[in-house]
Amino acid sequence: xxxxxxxxxxxxxxxxxxxxxxxxxxxxxxxxxxxxxxxxxxxxxxxxxxxxxxxxxxxxxxxxxxxxxxxxxxxxxxxxxxxxxxxxxxxxxxxxxxxxxxxxxxxxxxxxxxxxxxxxxxxxxxxxxxxxxxxxx
Length: 137
Fold this sequence. Notes:
By secondary structure, this protein is α+β, with helices and mostly antiparallel strands. The protein contains one helix and eight strands. The protein has a single domain, classed as Sandwich (Immunoglobulin-like), CATH 2.60.40.
């Protein structure tokens, strides 16, 4: 019985490796996220379609803002683009911002979430910065 289960497990792993090897890289979904319950909010970047989702965690009257930049690690970390994704909808609400970043194995995104009182308010309660590869490494 144990040998049969081991053989089935080995066959399933081998089949999975073949499926993984034949799946195009663009279909890979890689998610990079900040701390889940941070005062500023919570955000994830999805490399499969270059989207950022930001959730406001608290009913504090502040908006959750993802501050990001995309850079080329193969070109002395040259910044290619930068921006912000704002969530002013309030506690428990999520906002999605869609982008079209340049692709390449050396292209990465650096982002963090801050809380602001209005669109131009001072940054408060910043999360740790997260680095993720745009190509889905």
